[in-house]
Amino acid sequence: MQKLFLIFLLFASTLSVYSQKQKFTHQDTLRGSVTKERAWWNLLHYDLQVNIDAKNKYISGVNTIKYQVLKNYQIMQIDLQKPMQIIKVMQNGKNLNYTREGNVYFIDLQKNQEVGAKNEISISFQGKPIEAKKPPWDGGFVWKRVSNLYDSIPKNTDFNQKNFIANANQGIGASVWWPCKDNPYDEPDHGVSIKVTPPKGLMGVSNGRLKDVILNSNGSKTYHWEVINPINSYAINTNIANYSHFSEKYKGEKGILDCDYYVLPQNLERAKNQFQQVSKMLAAFEHWFGPYPFYEDSYKLVEVPYLGMEHQSSVTYGNGFKNGYLGNDLSGTGWGLKFDFIIVHESGHEWFANNITNKDVADMWIHEGFTTYSEVIYLDYHFGTQAGNEYLIGYREKVQNDKPIIGQYLVNNHGSNDMYIKGAAMIHTLRQVIDDDEKFRKILRGLNQDFYHQTVTSQQIENYISNQSELDLGAFFDQYLRTIKIPRIDYKIKKRTIKYRFKNIVKNFKIPVKVVVDGNETWINPTKRWKTIKNTNKNSTFKIDKNFYIENQKTN
After folding, report:
1. Domain boundaries, the chain
2. Measured distance CA(243)–CA(236) in Å, rounded
3. I want to staple 379 with a disulfide (CB 3.0 to 4.6 A). Which of 124, 201, 388, 434 is the partner?
4. Pairing state of beta strands 454-456 and 356-358?
């Protein structure tokens, strides 16, 4: 029962209330589309300053946004969700007027916005952000007490040091706690500066590198972190606790990668043992995907009071220092217990989600399909191809086919949670069709090189793979991404012949399929029309290679 509940959490609970509903509102359009109030300016840099009040579960701060003018326009859209509120907006020392429409603020700029100009705007904000009930899936702030999680904390520990605070806002969006351009299509070209002031006695850990620790007059400290690469708003985080820190240096494809780890003191020794998997993860992923995309900003694992998430260069971790998914193997094959699910999966997002980011969340399969497949290639690299194959085939049993993987565009809607496993199964099928692992690896590495630090559409990824594989994969992607149909091969055996054909397919769907006939591997090219294999045995057998995500049915 526990295992079924965990699986439900992972794949069912990722549907937030925002994506469950099929009737979309004007607010959904404002959030999910490139409105005219967004389109005229390009985001250059965030300078985010945040103060954390744990007793009142309250945050306040200032976000200074640097931007470049692309078109003449005077109204800027900034997103900030209730009950958070903007209290002041300034540009060039002048207060600006603004209006609120739900979770969107429209700011009237006084200064003429000339094309090509680089300007900045300062936004003060405050409030009690939404609390996450099932983080990271429903999203929001997480306010926990270490004493509620661990018995080992001394009873005389002061209030502040008992706090364990973090944010997790994929789905619901970064605007759940700070004002920003909350749409994935536009990332700050020059990164973000994050200055976090936690309660006294606690450390604030965010993305990128720690540049400075400032001692304030009241005895608190401000932790200044700097990201120099583009970063998606939902990947920006802050984590607050009485952290212990250790580090290592990984010799990677681009040189020395600094790896830093922040965990609760009582978990330090467990973390030092469990986090040895980081170097194994990096070795596998750099081989298959190419260099880690953010050497300049380092790599971090940060313990948090929830399962974990793919915050760029600040991957959060709450898997209990166990292999599997909280100690469970989601694939049911045993292979899932050979690695720590959160270290591998969430770090895989550094390549697919953080390096290559979907422009519209309707295309989130780019994040989740490839990253779920990163679990397969991790096993492949360290335990052999058969291990990865068996893991994927076992995992595939959990595909629901409830609705298409690609969601509805321009309304902040992602498709089915099958984007995880079915997305990975589609990629695995593609690997079989290409039938050349070195070519397949070159495509994966090419994606991360040619779309380096970019936001993309599904169509761009589909076209790239088609071109690089030299295959016509248009119908292939339509089949698996845009329908719930699983291709099926119908076959019938009569005398010494086997007849077969494709069923349940979209127009023009065609791929070669590896089958086993009378114990011998062979390739067939099914179509909608019956084809024949002649001169088989009297009592022939016909099986599809299980690595293809294709069903089969024997007919009379």
Report:
1. 348-482, 488-554
2. 19
3. 388
4. parallel
Distance separating alpha carbons of residues 271 and 246, to the nearest angstrom: 9
CATH 1.10.390.10 fits 348-482, yes or no: yes
Looking at the chain, the whole-number percentage of residues with pLDDT higher than 70 is: 94
Contacts of 429 (CB under 8 A, 6+ apart): 480, 511, 547, 548, 549, 550
Mean pLDDT of all residues in 116-143: 94
Structure-token match 């002649």, residue found = 534
DSSP string, 405-454: SS--TTTT----THHHHHHHHHHHHHHHHHT-HHHHHHHHHHHHHHTTTE
pLDDT at 397: 94
Residue-wise DSSP of 231-277:
--GGG--EEEES-EEEEEEEEETTEEEEEEEEE-GGGHHHHHHHTTH
Q: Which residue has the higher pLDDT, 446 or 150?
A: 446
Q: Is the dihedral of CA 485, 487, 493, 498 positive or negative?
A: positive
**Dihedrals phi, psi of 371, to nearest 5 degrees:** -70, -35
| 244, β-bridge pairs | 263
Label residue 98 exposed, middle or buried (CB < 10 Å: 0-12, 13-18, 19+).
middle
Q: Sign of the C-alpha dihedral, residues 264, 266, 268, 273?
A: negative
Could you give the CA distance from residue 478 to residue 19 in angstroms, rounded to a whole number? 22
DSSP annotation string for 334-352 = SGGGGSBHHHHHHHHTTTB
Q: How many of the other CB atoms lie within 10 Å of CB of 330?
A: 23
Which helix (H) or strand (E) segment is 390 a member of? helix 385-395
Question: Would you give the DSSP letter of residue 174?
Answer: G
Cα–Cα distance between 334 and 340 in angstroms, integer?
Answer: 13
Which of 185, 372, 188 is CA-nearest to residue 297?
188
Distance CA 186, CA 231 (A): 9
Tokens in use for 312? 């760029």
Question: Residues 496-518: what's their mean pLDDT?
Answer: 95
On whether the CB atoms of residues 213 and 220 are closer than 8 A, the answer is no
Number of other residues whose CB lies within 10 A of the CB of residue 278: 22
pLDDT for residue 8 is more than 80:
no
Tens digits of per-residue pLDDT, 369-391? 999 999 999 999 999 999 999 99
199-218: per-residue pLDDT in tens? 999 999 999 999 999 999 99
Whether the ω angle into residue 291 lies within 30 degrees of 0, i.e. cis, is no
pLDDT tier, 149 (very low <50, low <70, confident <90, very high otherwise): low
Q: What is the mean pLDDT of the chain?
A: 93
315: Cβ–Cβ under 8 A, 6 or more apart, which residues? 299, 300, 301, 302, 308, 309, 343, 346, 347, 349, 350
Start-to-end C-alpha separation, the chain: 40
